[in-house]
Structure to design on (284 residues):
């Protein structure tokens, strides 16, 4: 059994390893499909078992587990680099409290030395960034001076360093603060689309039913149109009955999360399996 597992892992590594030139063998479309499938798997796991995850970090770790594969590796300077990372630095500065302010419409320029760089909860790096970055330290992206040099040299290229920037929120108690945090995450993700990410997603999970849930859901869905918004609720009532409403997503998120379905039926989404509610779409 151990030998069989070893052979499986060895063959998997050989098949999906980068070629001699360091180019990844997985395409951007395949990465999008992988993320789509991993998000759906994470959502379904939570809907089936509302107490499977205790913390936001648990949810993030499960999505990481769903994506973990040697397919999502590439090579740079003889170093194997995984594309998926947690707590990855942003390519812009901001003041956290300002993100909740409607007047805050753009990030702070790097050269102003104001505010701070934050971190995304979860990212998927662009393989092309790994190949084209000046160094591995640039890929790790903790050194702001290196980031400033990349931006000065080629701003358009610096805007393509991430394929996905993802923020999480896990609503586990009746607290108005979650509404403000979701709004702040929406703004942060909007900035990511301006500076560094092709796709931006806000994933909000909720395992309670409280007076603020409707407002949290509204905050999730009322995102800029270029962001994927997903709200998932599953909880137990006072009689220990599991209540699992359909997840709510915006149209942008539906287009991503239905990629596999559309591929199976020749590019047309299975709308007969989808119900609609005004500007919101529900699925699963």
């Amino acid at each position: 059994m151990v030998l069989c597992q070893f052979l499986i892992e060895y063959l998997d590594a050989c098949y999906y390893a980068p070629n001699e030139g360091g180019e990844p063998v997985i395409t951007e479309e395949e990465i999008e499909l992988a993320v789509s499938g991993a998000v759906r798997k994470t959502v379904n796991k939570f809907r089936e078992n509302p107490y499977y995850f205790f913390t936001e970090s648990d949810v993030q770790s499960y999505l990481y587990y769903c994506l973990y594969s040697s397919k999502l590796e590439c090579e740079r300077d003889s170093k194997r680099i995984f594309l998926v990372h947690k707590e990855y630095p942003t390519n812009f500065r901001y003041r956290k409290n300002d993100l909740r302010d409607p007047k805050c419409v753009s990030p702070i320029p790097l050269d102003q030395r104001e505010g701070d760089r934050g971190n995304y909860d979860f990212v998927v790096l662009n393989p092309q960034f790994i190949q084209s970055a000046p160094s591995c330290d640039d890929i790790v992206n903790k050194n702001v001076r290196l980031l400033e040099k990349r931006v000065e040299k080629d701003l358009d290229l610096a805007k393509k360093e991430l394929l996905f920037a993802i923020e999480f929120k896990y609503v586990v108690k009746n607290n108005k603060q979650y509404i403000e945090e979701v709004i702040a995450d929406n703004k942060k993700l909007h900035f990511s689309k301006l500076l560094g990410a092709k796709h931006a997603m806000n994933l909000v999970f909720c395992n309670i039913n409280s007076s603020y849930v409707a407002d949290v859901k509204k905050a999730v869905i009322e995102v800029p149109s270029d962001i994927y918004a997903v709200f998932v609720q599953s909880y137990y009532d006072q009689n220990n009955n599991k209540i699992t409403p359909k997840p709510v997503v915006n149209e942008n998120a539906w287009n991503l999360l239905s990629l596999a379905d559309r591929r199976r039926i020749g590019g047309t989404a299975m709308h007969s399996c989808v119900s609609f509610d005004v500007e919101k779409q529900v699925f699963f």
About this structure: Residues 46 and 52 are 7 Å apart (CA to CA). The first helix runs from residue 2 to 16. Residues 22-252 form one domain.
